């Protein structure tokens, strides 16, 4: 027995990958934190994955290289994994296990919290309905994010999802709220050193780091560390939101790397694989992460979550995006075809969805014409996309004048509405005005999804601006 009351064993029977088996144990609990000490005297951290009878299976975060079965001691602490939380975490950079790596002073925690948190009682949840402005038109205008929502981004390898994550972290804000009440918790899993440097330079250059907590799990860090990284991030978010009444945006990237770690550990434990080799409990595991977002009755603070994941083989039916889509409230989908046109962000609007959008837009939240404008944009763009396919078969000569008009609308939508610069931040008013500028090229009778009163108020101004610009150009000539 150690001084702390923890029990120490030297009965390791098996070491494989990051997994260790200890025999002849008693009183060991699931998820209990352990300390592992080998010949070199270096302490390694781990947790109990399985406790059955007198046998315990342990996951070692730092890996088991250099450990053997004879000279390794395992100390069971009797506690689950916790993280010290404090408001001082804002502006700090941590590793994947929550330890500071920015050279700053030691963080003095206000309290210790279990990283697995506790489930939110559905009865205690409040329906999300307040708009978060990301400054990105295609999200704010057509796939609106609201406080307390979980809205994933489905990307494919080689596309600028890291740039989008950094831009959202820099630009996002709660409309009508004070800047000090809004913060970002950014957790990166399995990223390269180059990607890590990109994020840090982006946050430091724009001053966003001051209101951000950054957790970095690099590609060369132990894969098993990725299992705890998102949970530590969400534990910090819960403290800031529900204890300090802040509105927290949690950005998690890349959940695919997280799921690969789940599969790796399941294989090491020789579990029966599910779809594509992933463990059968992956749905439950992901739900344990995603469902920690939300609003709670009688609490001022909220947690909004944007998980980002790379679709393996560009397949949206792959188990990772497929299960994520079941749990979350919509999705933002990247497209290689749009990326090839040089458009940033390369988001394909047609398969995108925000299930809570209607609750977060309209008069008093964004603008009264927001819903109608979004519907009309979607309809017009979809028709233009269909006509592109038709042109590939019959040629543009076979199109009517109306068809050509919608082809132009599809091009304008991608080039003027979807496309914007990396550092460009558009307000919701600018986003809606851009849409009306596009509508000005359509006759009023084609705006079938917009209320007549909104057309009278906003269409005329767009038409007038275009007329004035044409007259000005003519005068100059």
Automatic annotation (TrEMBL):
Its main location: membrane. Residues 135-354 form the ATPase F1/V1/A1 complex alpha/beta subunit nucleotide-binding domain. Keywords: ATP synthesis, Cell membrane, Hydrogen ion transport, Ion transport, Membrane, Transport. It comes from the Archaea. SUPFAM superfamilies: C-terminal domain of alpha and beta subunits of F1 ATP synthase, N-terminal domain of alpha and beta subunits of F1 ATP synthase, P-loop containing nucleoside triphosphate hydrolases. It is a peripheral membrane protein. The keyword Phosphoprotein does not apply. Residues 360-459 form the ATP synthase A/B type C-terminal domain. GO terms for molecular function: ATP binding; proton-transporting ATP synthase activity, rotational mechanism. Pfam families: ATP-synt_ab, ATP-synt_ab_N, ATP-synt_VA_C. NCBIfam families: PRK04196.1. HAMAP family: ATP_synth_B_arch (MF_00310). This is A-type ATP synthase subunit B. It comes from Methanonatronarchaeum thermophilum.
